[in-house]
Design goal:
By secondary structure, the chain is mostly helical. The protein has helices at residues 2-13, 19-38, 48-60, 65-84, 111-118, 126-141, 145-148, 177-190, 209-222, and strands spanning 107-110, 156-157, 160-164, 170-174, 251-254.
């Protein structure tokens, strides 16, 4: 469909959305288009009554509230694009409220568990130094794993790192003495990269997000931490920066 392909190109080249985000938008919109086609409804004829029937259909299929919210957001943006391009006069999704988010208790590490996990990588080996640096950087700066793998040596200046985040937005994050000492040790004695990416793999020169998650999960298991969070996400409410100031906290929350 031309409207959809044009919209996806708009997201890629004008909004600078990632390929993963664009793929998710495409799936959500295509599913809705399949629905209205099955009901013999033209894309320009969609009104609130059609949207309401579609939401009921999603509920009958036991879609989670987070999934429904994402689909609504995807289609709201799509129809806003159609309005801006004079295809539609109004947005049928503008009056639709997002479902309430499901609330879950956060999974967390206690401080002593985090310390035990930090001790798993052995600093007398090159791989141990690199893996310890991964942990130190993640928990000292709060950067995303996807951001960490793209940090270049040239991005580091003293105890500051220039990070390129979502939407190609650049920001400066700080880290403390613990992470700095491991970084210096790693770069001076064990770094086997090509001088480009900071966190490097000996065989490929680049470390991907999946491998970092696997290493972090392995470290938590070797530390004997039961029911550890299965993946790392940056904290939204606790800024763990400068000399691992997490020691003043009873728990480290991972959302």
């Amino acid at each position: 469909m031309k409207y959809l392909s044009d919209y996806l190109e708009y997201l890629k080249y004008q909004k600078n959305y990632s390929d993963e985000t664009i793929h998710s938008y495409s799936i959500d919109i295509e599913e809705f288009l399949d629905y209205i086609n099955s009901e013999c409804i033209n894309i320009c004829e969609v009104g609130y009554d059609v949207v309401k029937a579609w939401l009921i259909n999603l509920d009958e299929k036991k879609n989670k509230s987070t999934t429904v919210s994402r689909k609504i957001s995807s289609l709201r943006g799509f129809y806003k694009y159609l309005i801006n391009n004079k295809v539609m006069d109004s947005n049928p999704f503008s009056l639709v409220s997002l479902p309430k988010k499901e609330r879950h208790l956060p999974r967390f590490f206690y401080y002593n568990e985090l310390e035990e996990m930090f001790q798993v990588p052995k600093l007398n080996t090159a791989l141990g130094q690199r893996d310890r640096l991964l942990l130190e950087m993640l928990y000292a700066t709060g950067v995303r794993v996807s951001e960490l793998v793209n940090i270049k040596v040239s991005d580091i200046n003293g105890e500051e790192i220039r990070v390129l985040g979502k939407g190609n937005k650049e920001r400066i994050v700080e880290f403390g003495d613990y992470a700095e000492s491991i970084l210096e040790l790693y770069l001076n004695t064990s770094y086997f990269g090509d001088g480009y990416y900071c966190v490097a793999d000996a065989s490929e020169g680049y470390y991907d997000k999946k491998t970092i998650d696997m290493n972090r999960n392995e470290a938590s298991m070797l530390a004997g931490i039961p029911n550890a969070p299965s993946a790392y996400c940056p904290t939204k409410h606790l800024k763990l920066a400068k000399q691992r100031q997490i020691q003043v906290l009873d728990k480290i929350y991972l959302y």
